[in-house]
Amino acid sequence: MLSDAGRMPFPALLRMGESTRPEMRDLTPRPVFAASPASSARDTAADEPALVRAARAGDRRAFDQLVERHQRIVYAACYRFVGNQEDARDLTQDVFVRAYRAIARFKGKSAFSTWLHRIAVNTSLNHLAVRRREYEASEPERRVDESATAPDAGLVAAERAHLVRAAIARLPPMQRATLILRLYRELTHEEIAHILGNSVGASKANLFHALNNVRRQLEGRDLP
Questions:
Q1: How many domains, the chain?
Q2: Are residues 86 and 196 in the same domain?
Q3: Is the pTM of this model over 0.85?
């Protein structure tokens, strides 16, 4: 996560911090992303390349418009990973800061939204990795606390969870993201494909390989 000093106050994102305002309520994740009217979608698709070109040339106002257009989906994608609004808002800000700093290198080989989704996924995965390390660093102390009240059950559950988390952490990024979104966030493959910017078939294949890789890592382990 970036420090507050490293953040850039995009106007649209500043409104996200004001939970009493309509903008925040509008950004609450929905089970399925609502599609825009066809005419609006055509207009957006038509002028977005011009906004991207202007933003690449250093036009801050053009980038602010891109933020306005994509903040809802980026926020929802981050929320799917972290499951709470505060972290999702922070991650959304980080995603757009990273995108702003990297947009000059965006070559347009994929849709801008796909590129942005990938930044959101990587930022969220990095956040989860940091949280996981913090969790594991404090795990011995928690195990002692658990064993004081349930010597067997607490240690067994903690050890099993540790082995599974470690196996998931070693997965390739797209497999790890797919597994987290499917098993822990209970999203459909259609929703996962939308978030990760790939196809439903790719999502199913990533989940298949992720589960096989986790099983392979745990084979031979004396799981409690």
A1: 2
A2: no
A3: no
